[in-house]
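Issue: ligand-bound run for NAP - logging full I/O for the record.

Environment: standard queue, default settings, no custom constraints.

Inputs:
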Amino acid sequence: MAGASRGIGRTVAVALAEAGAAVAVAARSETEGRLPGTIHSVAEQIVSSGGRALAIPCDVTSEESVGAAVAETVDAFGGIDVLIANAGVLWLGPVESTPLKRWQLCLDVNLTGVFLVTKAVLPHVRARGRGSLVAVTTTGVTMTDKGANAYWVSKAAVERLYLGLAAELKADNIAVNCLSPSRVVLTEGWQATGGTQQIPPEAIEPPAAMAEAAVLLASQDAAGITGTVQRSETLTGRA
Ligand code: NAP
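Outputs:
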């Protein structure tokens, strides 16, 4: 589970463990920083509830770091069946006022990060004979009437990556799907970066919807849902 130290990632990691998975809780934060949540606090939460989890430091923008994290996961758990590529950074500013470093960060974390973790886990998932890869994207990808920003562009590219990959991996019985919240989840990251926007109560989604949807996609393979872009509340029948 890439990007599991807080927010949606924390909720999904806990839900996967409750569903019986051994969870590699991967992200960068090992100590509390500007935002609350660490890989250790999430892994401890799972283990103290009787689940299996391991805190694994990982920067998804570094091929070396991703490779080490995947190797540690395979050593600890004996293989990998599921990837939830959830690590993400938000930048909703218009193109004209987007510094190059923000543009680059969105592409590095949100797109190259998904590429790197997917590439690294693939041989291990294939070796299991079945599996499920899920990339977390956003409804903003289709909102072209609302303009453009680095975040939406990076997530659109992930959807193209995963839809194409689904076709490549169908014969390997590996499901490949994108999943996004149907509405806004008021996570730590959202409140720190996107929180200047006023979100009406009806546009706010409980974190449990993403947890339920991710468990559903993770629990199946290419005989079921594959090559799709899913919205949490639609998939789970909440909306
Ligand atoms: P969040 O609270 O900011 O959490 C982001 C997670 O990504 C953290 O665990 C963070 O961990 C990790 N991360 C960031 N950069 C990383 C890196 N270089 N390497 C490894 N991990 C990294 O965000 P969130 O709101 O839960 O969002 C989670 C995902 O859902 C994102 O992909 C986001 O784009 C997507 N999404 C969210 C919403 C929403 O309404 N919240 C809507 C649509 C899509 P560290 O900082 O510890 O590394």
